[in-house]
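Quick note —
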Amino acid sequence: MDRLDFVTRVNPEYVDRVYEQYLRDPRSVDESWQQTFAAMDSGAPMPAGYFHANNGNGKVATGTQDATIRIASEMSAHEPLPEFTGPMPQLTIGVHKLVHAYRELGHLVGNIDPLGHNRTSHQLLELSQFNISEADLNRTVGSGGFLGPIDGTLRDLLAKLQATYCRQIGVEFQNISDKAQREWLAQQMEPVLNRPKLSQEQARAVLFQVLAAEEFEQFLRLKFKGAKTFSLEGAESLIPLLNTIVDEGATVGAEEVCFGMPHRGRLSVLAHVLNKPYEVILSEFKYTNVQQAWEGDGDVKYHLGYANDRSVSNGKNVHLSLSPNPSHLELVNPVVEGIVRCKQKIRGDKDHSKVVPILLHGDAAFTGQGIVFETLNLSELPFWRTGGTIHVIVNNQIGFTTPPHEGRFTPYPTDVAKMIQAPIFHVNGDDPEAVVWAGKLAIAFRQKFKCDVFIDLWCYRRWGHNETDEPMFTQPKMYKQIRDHKTTRQLYSQKLVADSYADQKVLDDMKSVARERLESSLKLAEEVRPRQKSATFNPLWKTMVRIPTDWSANTKVTRDVLAKVAEGINKFPAIFNPHPKLAELMKKRLDAVKAGKGIDWGCGEMLAMGSLLLEGTPIRFTGQDVQRGTFSHRQAVLFDQETGEPYTPLNFMVPDQKTHLTIQNSMLSEMAVLGFEYGFASADPRNLVIWEAQFGDFVNGTQPIIDQFISAAESKWQLMNGLVMMLPHGFEGQGPEHSNAYLERFLSLCAENNIQVAVPSNPAQVFHLLRRQIHRKFRKPLVLMMPKSLLRAEIATSKIEEFTDGVMQLVIDDPVALDREKVRRVLFCSGKVFYTLSEAREKEGIKDTALVRVEQLYPFPKKEIQAVLAKYRNARDVTWVQEEPKNKGAWSYMEPRLRELLPDPATLHYVGREESASPATGSTKVHGNEELELIQQALEIAPKAPATPVQAAAAAAPAAQPASPPARLQAMASSPVTQQMM
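Predicted structure written out below.
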């Protein structure tokens, strides 16, 4: 029997299934079939030993004889094939390639631009690419794997492919490596040709939403001439899109939707999606709903947020919230993700289906701002996952005045999303039905696969960046076309009339209803009503006091509690193998607590977190290397030395411990991670949320989050937050990038009791600062300038009484028992420099100089400093001493405040490094000389002159070397206090 005769007995259905499976995922079929189909797909000639069989339905079986015999033995049927009547093998191969090509590239020739600038052809979609010609169009070729309804001809298949992938929706999903996701998307789109038909009722509902959005924008422009609204016009389909996602989401498990968006279209989204009353919005234009003084400074209306419970079509209520947003358009992205993650935790939403994030973007900002990339990266990491975000890019096809080709090099603004293999729907904003269908697909995909999904809403901006701009200055051709282009409402109205879904009376009635609502709301806006106040964002914050009068807190704990924590971290599972050094470290911490002395920073921090956990406060702690600590002082997570498995001792202090520490090393990002943690902290005041910079200097990568949210959110948006930022800070000869945490920047942001800035000098202070964050009836962000070399310095340890009997001290007076009547100089300082000065003072035997630590710089401890100054009545010299250059650190902040408190006739002086463009020198030697000079100036230690001319000449011999300082000061420069623990 020859080979062809043998193959004609092979089960054609089996071969068909194998080939279709290969097209979906080549690795899922036998290697011999992979080789065979790969040879076919490459167009290479069949080598000797290959043969073909056609099943008459457009499918070809190909393989070596041995492979075919082996596979044939697995088949259930071996009937001869019917006489060959179908397409030739090469045509069949081309048909399958054609289907794949349209799935992959059809979007490139889609009708997705409402202004009509679409490609009508693409070389890779030409029939010749698949060895097909127009002469083949009427041939019967089967489906080629396409799942939609066809009559079997190539002509109909091609038409259905174009209808599915080249109309008003273009889809990118072939870059997804997950087989189930790709198959699901094809199964949803192809049977309905990517356009299910709406009923009359559904179509009218969509039209009314578009109409209401347009009427709203026109009404604002008519009644408030010259006011900025950042109109949605040109993208009105956004309203039915978002409403569809909310309504459909409620049917598949969503109970809460959290939005983040820029200002374009924000007012319309507030009104028509979150149902913020028209009269509230209009009162903001008429200034009848004026911000009260105690509410802070407020913000412009198109930055404000809102929250509301909304009834949806299935009778359920969905909680909707829109986070306030600054003009840094994409900054809100990680903040919303953090809020969602926390709310999912509150709801016990382990599969991330109940709380859904939706982020809206502008096309220019999405491709231009790096925080987008960082946030997308976070979305795929387990500790930051929220189960997928629905991203909607309102594709204006322009930035402020910048066209796309000047703002990106990619065809679409969504191309950055391919890094996380998310499906992307490019949709024409002038086709509301296509937009609604994209929304249904997006929420269904997100809820099923818990992955991000993108909707690229192609539209245009009917006006300039805002209504006062003249876009014709920079885009005359584009805006001539826009001026003559019919609105989405007009185009869709014409369609419904043509489909007999509506007539002119229906359209007129819709307009009357929309306009009457606006007119009646304008009258209500003249008055201030309780209904006009913003909805409460989160009921968990109702117990918090907005304007605190008492900033104190009882943060003491008993020795028994401290012992329970210290003992708890030494209870390892029987099968756990800790590193011997770390096991010894844990024992030393226990010994220190039992002895009541020598409690170092790592232990003090552990006692703070452990005691809060035992009290029922969850703790979330993130940042680069936080599990170990950049300087190896923390060791909050231990790793089994045999298996590598992690173990967090603080989570197993007592049996059945209810509250846990979740501490996680973050990716190498600052801005997005800090934004996420800020968002998490803003959703629930019952959590202690901590972010630590690897080095304090790296906090400058987060500056927009600090400026726009951490320091200003309460004043702008009345949003409290208790986030803690730990920033290692200290000048220790490690260069400009590992010295300064930009203390001066934080102090420049301080006003209206907005944040707290502290430089703790011992572990007990950190203990009380962390506990104080929870044991007060309000929340304020806390910026902690943490040490490096002090982490293990014996001089900077604490006693047990400081934890059990003390509180956080805003100012610490000199611990040495000086004769206060003889003190003539008072040196104020913060942080490590205190220990440097104290050591030098002791060695020099200085008795007339007091050293006072200011532990909390803001809120400024005025009363406490006044009380200290009152103790030294004869002091005439008050000096601020700092390690930082004069234009950095706390001097510029402290100088006017200290000067105001000076007793007459005392004078104020500065001691520290000179002004510098760089935070610190890169030379260890120069650093040491600078520090010695600082000590000499602060303590008035004069460098000793050489005793004889010979000694002077010897000292001056190395021309490039400065005069040697006294030996005792050299010893100080090399002491553990001044050396950084890397």
